[in-house]
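Write out structure tokens for cyclic pyranopterin monophosphate synthase.
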Amino acid sequence: MLARVLRRSLGDAGSRSSRCGYASKMTHTDEETGEARMVSVTTKAETHRRAQAQGRIVLSKEAFAVLEANELHTAKGNALVVAQIAGIQAAKTTSQLIPLCHPLMLGLIDVRLALNKATSSVDCKTTVETKGSTGVEMEALTATSVALLTVYDMCKAIDKHMVMQDIRVIEKQGGKSGDWQWAPHQ
């Protein structure tokens, strides 16, 4: 059913859309039945893969001031250190959280959190690398998301109105589809 709806809405554009260069079909669904399936990567060459993701969590001025003064040493520990470790752990367990992701041997997970006074936010940028037959975009996104969720958890006693924003892949390298960088839609 889903496959028929997709074919009708996409037409006979083939596997690539000429307008934007993205695939015009979902790779994790069976073309005939629309059922979920794990993509086979068994015949794909192992190459160096790298992805970067970023996001931010906007805090109240009060919560930001506490973080900035490095006063948020809760019973759980220093907020930004705990968030960094949580992001690293999340990248390593992405395939357990996202059902159709392949388990990967990750060579690098670099989660960086920084205070941004201009936006009263904690900004997160994650880089993940592997040598493998599938990309690491999901691992970078998962690490960034969980790191920011951890900041929320650590600061919620001070501020319950925090907002996570702009979580996205900003760069990917390697693989059959080649390199890609974030650019706003035109």
